[in-house]
Design brief:
Low-confidence stretches: 1-18
Shape: globular
Number of strands: 5
Largest sheet: 5 strands, mixed
Helix content: 40-55%
Strand content: 15-25%
CATH topology: Glutaredoxin
Distance between the termini: 56 Å
Length: 149
């Protein structure tokens, strides 16, 4: 009986986490189309998921947190462009091309992590990166960046 109760709690916790996880696209054209339709800005993230320590910290401390999911769900169209280096993490060629095309438009400097806020029309509103302090502090910081535009 105890096992069934624990299994049930684990399942319900997993489904709650899945419900709160924000949806990320990996296509800049799709993100911009969704932004135009919804009239929300795009939050585009460029990361090196298997080699960039600040990228990993940003994902873990901010983007994977329920506070960010709650904040972002009605505020942004989310787009993630990953550039892994390890052979085992290589992306398929089509996704690599999408990521490279997005970087050519938005991250020509090759900064990692790079967070770029775009208007629904695709105009760059702000650029930033990793900031310590967790999800709530990052959400506040994003609000400040958007308020300046």
């Amino acid at each position: 009986m105890r096992y069934l109760l624990l299994a049930g709690l684990a399942f319900s916790s997993a489904s709650v986490a899945a419900q709160t996880a924000p949806a990320w696209t990996n296509s800049l054209p799709a993100a911009l189309q969704q932004a135009k339709t919804s009239q929300k800005p795009v939050l585009a993230v460029f990361s090196g998921s298997d080699w960039c320590k600040p990228c990993m910290m940003l994902k873990q401390e901010v983007f994977d947190q329920p506070e960010f999911a709650q904040y972002a769900k009605d505020k942004f169209v989310l787009a993630r462009f990953d550039f892994p280096r390890n052979k085992k993490n290589r992306l398929d060629p089509a996704q690599t091309k999408l990521n490279e095309d997005a970087a050519a438009k938005l991250n020509q400097e090759g900064a990692f992590p790079a967070v770029v806020l775009l208007s629904p029309e695709g105009k760059i509103l702000a650029r930033t990166g990793y900031r310590p302090g967790g999800a709530t502090a990052y959400d506040t910081y994003l609000e400040q960046l958007l308020a300046k535009k």
